[in-house]
Structures are given as structure tokens and as C-alpha cells.
Design goal:
about 120 residues; mainly beta; 7-stranded mixed beta sheet; 4-stranded antiparallel beta sheet; about 0% helix
Length: about 120
């Protein structure tokens, strides 16, 4: 089992920046690819970004490409999501998730999930 704890979500103005963190414990961190998902009320859970075990490969959803950056620090067992040029449409609960081996694109492929952290972007 892997425990994941997100932090960093808060209220921020449109155009601003925010960095989310996800701290992992319980298993070998480098055994897992990591993903960031988000879910707004009434919407499906959406893959925002993902990163493989080493950090050498990344994926971004079309809605955030060019604005968000995913990274990981394996020495700290932590994955980050740097969010720039935030828009009101980015408002959602953001979840960190872990999947075995390489990058996965479906929520059902991820074995472990954090509790979520609320990001609210206001105008």
C-alpha cells in the first residue's frame, strides 16, 4: 500500500500561480508513475498531468499544456504540480495518484489516491 497526501491548494486570483505537493509513504516511490487528476462538481475526474518513475517522461492534458508542469523528487518521495496562468476553469479538487510502472492515462489504472486538495481560482 501507498499513502499519498496532497497539499498546497488554496484560493488564488486568475492569472496567478500555485504549486501543489504530494508526499508519498509506505512503498518504494520509484516503483510508481504518478499522476495529477482534478474533478470539478458535476464533471468526470480528468487527468491533468502524469510522470513516469524516473521523471524522464511526462504527459499533459490539452487544457493545461504550456501552463502546468509536473515534476518529482524521488529523494523526497514527492511529486509536484506547478500551476501558472491559472484560470477560473481550473477550479477543482486536485488528486494525486500512483500507478505501477509507466505512465497511465485512465483513472482506473491508478492503484492509490490521495484525499485531494481544493484549488479555487477567482476573478
Amino acid at each position: 500500500q501507498v499513502q499519498l497526501v496532497e497539499s498546497g491548494g488554496e484560493l488564488v486570483q486568475a492569472g496567478g500561480s500555485l504549486r501543489l505537493s504530494c508526499a508519498a509513504s509506505g512503498r518504494t516511490f520509484t516503483d510508481y508513475a504518478m499522476g495529477w487528476f482534478r474533478q470539478a462538481p458535476g464533471n468526470e475526474r480528468e487527468l491533468v498531468a502524469a510522470i513516469n518513475w524516473s521523471g524522464g517522461n511526462t504527459y499533459y492534458g490539452a487544457s493545461v499544456k504550456g501552463r502546468f508542469t509536473i515534476s518529482r523528487d524521488n529523494a523526497k518521495s514527492t511529486v509536484y504540480l506547478q500551476m501558472n496562468s491559472l484560470k477560473a476553469e481550473d477550479t477543482a479538487v486536485y488528486y494525486c495518484a500512483a500507478a505501477p510502472t509507466g505512465i497511465r492515462y485512465w483513472a482506473s489504472s491508478y492503484d492509490y489516491w490521495g484525499q485531494g486538495t481544493q484549488v479555487t481560482v477567482s476573478s
